[in-house]
Amino acid sequence: MRGLLKRLYPRPLLGIIPQGSANILRYELALPTSVSGLVDIFLGGRIGHLHIGLANERPFTLMASVGFDAEVVKTVSKPLKHRIGRLSYVYAALKLVFGYKGDHIEVKTGDEIFLAKLIIVTNSKYYGGSFVLDPETSSLRPGLKLIAVSDVGFVSLLKLGIGLISGRLNDATLIRRMPVRLVQLRSQREVATQIDGDQLGATPMVISECSETLEVFMGSTGIVDLAEVNRFRGRFGFYGHRRKPLIS
């Protein structure tokens, strides 16, 4: 992704082949899992704009986080991740959760400063696969959403997990949500950070919106730019006899 962002226009179109542990971007882009389905997507020319976030200048497409979530990512080994997929995160979380207290993280956004124990800044509706983290957020729309969790004790994390799985992650006593464009995060001790399910490092961390987007192939239920569809078809000659334009 960083390589594409460095390219001058016109950039190559981005095609995603879902092969990750959780494949969150697959759900964001409504992509199929079959080879034939992906080929139809890539030939169909349905294009969206993938919005990017930056964490310490590193681009991400889904989310960046500080705290328990990132500690889990830090704990997961690559061999285990390859062997059991996203269950490796569940295994790591269960190992960490008992006795975990977490550190206070100072959050500064705009003129507001407050403390939390877990911070997720998301560019995505989904988390851990198809679980809904924030229904108002999408990688295909501009804007980041900050989700701040005030307590990460065992009971609180259990409630959060049940809420996420059941689609009712709305406990206002634990969670604070707000749209953000720039967030500064710091802590007295170093706290683990991650982006898109990969370890990034430790606090401090600055998260912001990227001013650029990437053109990406997408499925039939996403947010589509109709002008881009026709421009793509004109660019690659998809107005031939074998396929008719989707939009005339």
Describe, in plain words, how this protein is organized in 3D.
The chain is of the alpha+beta class. Helix 4 (68-75) packs across helix 6 (87-97). Helix content is 28%, strand content 30%. 35% of the residues are buried. The chain has one domain (2-236): Sandwich (Tumour Suppressor Smad4). The strands form three sheets. It has a six-stranded antiparallel β-sheet. The protein has a six-stranded antiparallel β-sheet with strand order 10-9-6-3-12-13, covered by helices on one side. Residues 222-248 have low confidence and may be disordered. The chain has helices at 2-6, 24-28, 35-44, 68-75, 78-84, 87-97, 154-166, 226-236; strands at 47-55, 58-60, 63-66, 105-109, 112-116, 118-122, 126-127, 131-132, 144-149, 175-180, 182-186, 192-195, 198-202, 205-217. The longest helix is centred in the middle third of the chain and has 13 residues, at 154-166. It is globular.
Please state the overall shape, judged from the principal axes of the Cα atoms.
globular
Please, how many helices?
Answer: 8
CATH-level-2 architecture:
Sandwich
Give the end-to-end Cα distance, rounded to a whole number of Å.
32 Å
Strand content: 25-35%
| Overall mean confidence score, pLDDT | 84
Count the E strands.
14
CATH overall fold name? Tumour Suppressor Smad4
User: How many domains comprise the coordinates?
Assistant: 1
Largest sheet: 6 strands, antiparallel
CATH C-level class: Mainly Beta
